[in-house]
Amino acid sequence: MDLFADLHIHSCLSPCGDNDMTPGNILGMAKVKGLDAVAISDHNSARNLPAAQIIAEAYDVLLVPAIEITTSEEVHMLGYFPDVQTAVDFGEMLKAHLPPRKNKPGLFGEQRIMNEDDEIIGEEDALLIGATDLPLKECASLVRAVGGVPVPAHINRGANGLLINLGMMPKEPEFTTVEVWRHLPCQPEPMEGRHVLHSSDAHYLEDISEPEFVLHLKEKSVAALLDWMRTPRTI
Predict the structure, then answer these.
(1) When you count CB atoms within 10 A of the terminal residue's CB, does the N or C end of the chain come out lower?
(2) Could you give phi then psi for residue 33, rounded to 5 degrees?
C-alpha cells in the first residue's frame, strides 16, 4: 500500500525545535496535510514519543519511533525503532554517552517534555544538542541490536551530513537506507542499491512535509516499514 510520510520531524524536546512543535500540534498538522506516517526524531532522546503515540492512534497516523543520534564524529544518524518503549530506553542509554553538561535554555533552546494533552510535564536537562561519544559504526550496531534500523540523516547537507562530514560513504557500517535532502544535489553512488528517504527535518510546524514522499509497503505498520528499510534495494 502507498503511504505519504515525513520521517524526520523535531518536537519541542529538541532544543532547536520551536516550542509550538508539541506532539499534538505535529500530529494534528500531519493529519491536516494528509500524511499517513510520521517519525518524531528528536536529538539523542525519545521522551516525547509516549505522548505522541497516544495522539497518533487517535488521529490514525502511523507514528514511527525514532531518534536523531549524533555520533562521536558529529554525524547525524537516524535510528528507527520497532516500538516507543525501545526508543525511549535507547534514548536513556544515549544520555549516559552525552557530554556531562547541562542544557542552557537561554543559549540552546528549551527541551520540553510533554504529555498527550500538550501540557509541559518536565524539562530535559542534559545537553541533547551535543555529540555522543559513540562512533558511527557502534551506533549503527546498537540500533540494530534492539531491532531498529540505522539511517544516515541528510547525507548531502550541512556539517553533520555523512558525505559532508566524512567525505564519502563508508564501507562499514553498511547502510541499506539513506536520507537525502532533496533541495540539494547528491552524487548518485551513495544512493545506488539503497532505499532513499526524503523528509522535512522540520523544526517548525509549517515546514512539515506536504504529501509528496510515498512509501510502498505491504501494510501500514512500523514492522513493515523497518523490513523495507533493512532490505537492500534491488536494481
Answers:
(1) C
(2) -80, -10
CA distances to 39, 54, 161 from 71, in Å: 20, 30, 11
For helices 84-95 and 136-145, give the axis angle rounded to 10 degrees.
Answer: 150
DSSP H helical ranges for 14-148: 23-33, 49-59, 84-95, 105-108, 136-145
234 pLDDT above the threshold of 80: no
CATH for 13: 3.20.20.140
Between the CA of residue 33 and those of 19, 25, 30, 57, 183, what are the distances in Å? 20, 12, 5, 17, 20
- The C-alpha cell 547537507 sits at 157
In one letter, which amino acid is 95?
Answer: K
Specify the number of domains making up the chain. 1
pLDDT digits (tens, 9 = 90+) for 200-227: 999 999 999 999 999 999 999 999 999 9
Per-residue pLDDT of 120-173, as tens digits, reads 999 999 999 999 999 999 999 999 999 999 999 999 999 999 999 999 999 999
Is residue 93 a part of any domain in this protein?
yes
54 close to 26: Cβ distance less than 8 angstroms: no
DSSP 3-state assignment of 150?
Answer: strand
Alpha-carbon distance of 179 to 191, in angstroms, equals: 9
Residue 179 phi, psi dihedral angles, 5° rounding: -105, 130
